[in-house]
Amino acid sequence: MRKYILALDQGTTSSRAIAFNSNGKSAGAKNVELKQIFPKPGWVDQDPEEIYSSQMSAMRRMLDETGIKAYEIDSIGITNQRETVVVWDSRTGEPVCNAIVWQCRRTAPICEKLVKTGYTAMIKEKTGLVPDAYFSGTKIKWILENIPKAKELSEQGNIMAGTIDSWLMYKMSGGKVHATDVSNASRTMLFNIKTGKWDDELCEILDIPMDILPKVVDSSGIVFEYELDGVKIPVSGIAGDQQAALFGQTCFEKGDSKNTYGTGCFILMNIGKDIIYSNGGLLTTIAWRINGETEYALEGSVFNAGSTIQWLRDNLGFMENAADSQAMAESVNDSGGVYFVPAFTGLGTPYWDMYARGSITGLTRGVTKAHIVRAGLEAIAYRTSEVLAVMEDDTGAMPCRLYVDGGASANGFLMQFQSDLLGFEIIRPVIRETTALGAAFLAGLATGFWKSKDDLKNLIETDKIYRPSGLCGMRKKTMIGWREAVARSKGDIGF
Ligand code: ADP
To answer: Could you tell me what percentage of the chain is helix, strand and coil, using 3-state DSSP and rounding each to the nearest 5?
Structure first.
């Protein structure tokens, strides 16, 4: 009996394998850490072989621990850290160098050149992105130009490139499959989100031969059969991590939005079948393609969210565990006039100020640790509200609820404050592994394990709904003080 879906969640810091049963509940999970390599300041690498082996060992250990057998697995869903690239020898499968990770800034000069040449508008129009080292295209270009082996193989026509989903599928299929799904493709800065194809002009500008790129497939659909312990299992769901989380939160309708409160925040809004370009610095991306039908999302991120609490814990020693921040915040009535702008690495949407730095303002003799911790949590909610306000401007509609996940979504104070600030419901599901769940949902929809999106919606159990309280009006006023505090953190006033 095929009663489980296996989700492989290849993240930046670890590889995770989870088995979900037909009720969408986890039947077992295993995590294997992944080494980060920092060859130079601002450069971030990973070993492609370790990416694959850590994922396989997470899968194997989870199966061993739970006793789940290969013949019990209906299908496999893959979700992954986005934008990270691997380039390999198409004959041997040997990588030509380390994977260049999404965080790596080594291709910033290439991006500056693209901007100076005047390509920004064209890139936005075709890809929904802004020219930035974050995306895969310039990373592939860098490898082709700087790694002698890559140059040599490229001249011989023996080279392949891809994001992490491609790499995992290539390895899992024994070198037979070179594919990626649309959601991953849409993060490369080489993929035209209007036509749903690799873009000639972009590949030419970046000197990337189009035939080294993978075949682009739907996010839900059988790509190949993976042989595990002699059993053939369809690999039938693929999506980049944030899009998978949007799917796992069952944000299927236009306007449905989710926020993942992790180290940073990733906020995605489903915008349906028509592309909307942002005027406020959000990215337009492909959410998924199912049965050939593409749906889009707007994406905004906040660089520092849970990291604010980490910093208060580790650098200032204000608490032992991140979770203690809730009781501390609730021990005072308000932040005592303190605003904490956690601009440790600059400010993203809607400020886009790379030179902004953190600040704590409004200090008086009466201020305690609790006020500062509270101000730190409030800041996460303020930043999220600012990104959602840009989404409202861009789409002309504010969502009427926000689905949440990620480590800091466990913080009830933060969730209530967020709801008061936004003036609508915050919905937190029981299962917070929404990324893996989304990949499993995509896989199970393709094989008929689950019949429809409505079936999936019925599987989601709500842990808690936070509704705006009587403090809603007052919270909106505190936003004015927040904006003043942000103004003081900005790079142009001398930090
Ligand atoms: P990531 O996937 O980005 O590593 P996680 O989703 O695991 O992040 O969340 C971890 C982050 O959430 C940490 O930065 C931590 O400080 C923060 N965090 C975890 N629990 C809480 C909590 N109860 N209250 C506030 N922040 C929390």
So the answer is: 40, 25, 35
As a whole-number percent, the residues of the chain with pLDDT over 70 amount to: 99
Interatomic CA distance for residues 322 and 329, integer angstroms: 12
In order of start, what are the domains of the chain with their CATH numbers?
Answer: 4-239 (3.30.420.40)
- Whether 265 is in the pocket of ligand 1, judged by its Cβ within 6 Å, is no
**How many A from CA of 124 to the centre of ligand 1?**
32
Tell me which residue has its CA closest to atom 18 in ligand 1.
Answer: 408
Q: Give yes or no for a contact between 105 and 42, defined as CB atoms under 8 angstroms apart.
A: yes
Closest ligand 1 atom to Cα of 326: 24
List of residues 6+ apart from 345 with CB closer than 8 A = 303, 304
Residue for token pair 């003043």: 484
Residue 473 reports pLDDT greater than 80: no
Q: Rounded to two decimals, what is the model's pTM?
A: 0.93
**Residue ranges of E strands in 22-134:** 26-33, 45-46, 73-80, 85-89, 99-100
Which residue puts its alpha carbon closest to atom 13 of ligand 1? 306
Structure confidence at residue 493 (pLDDT): 54
Strand-pair category, 179-181 with 462-466: unpaired
- pLDDT tens digit sequence for 391-413: 999 999 888 899 999 999 999 99
Peptide bond preceding 350 in cis form (omega within 30 of 0):
yes
Does the pLDDT at position 472 exceed 80? no
For the Cβ of 410 lying below 6 angstroms from any atom of ligand 1, the answer is: yes
- The answer, yes or no, to whether residue 450 has pLDDT greater than 80, is yes
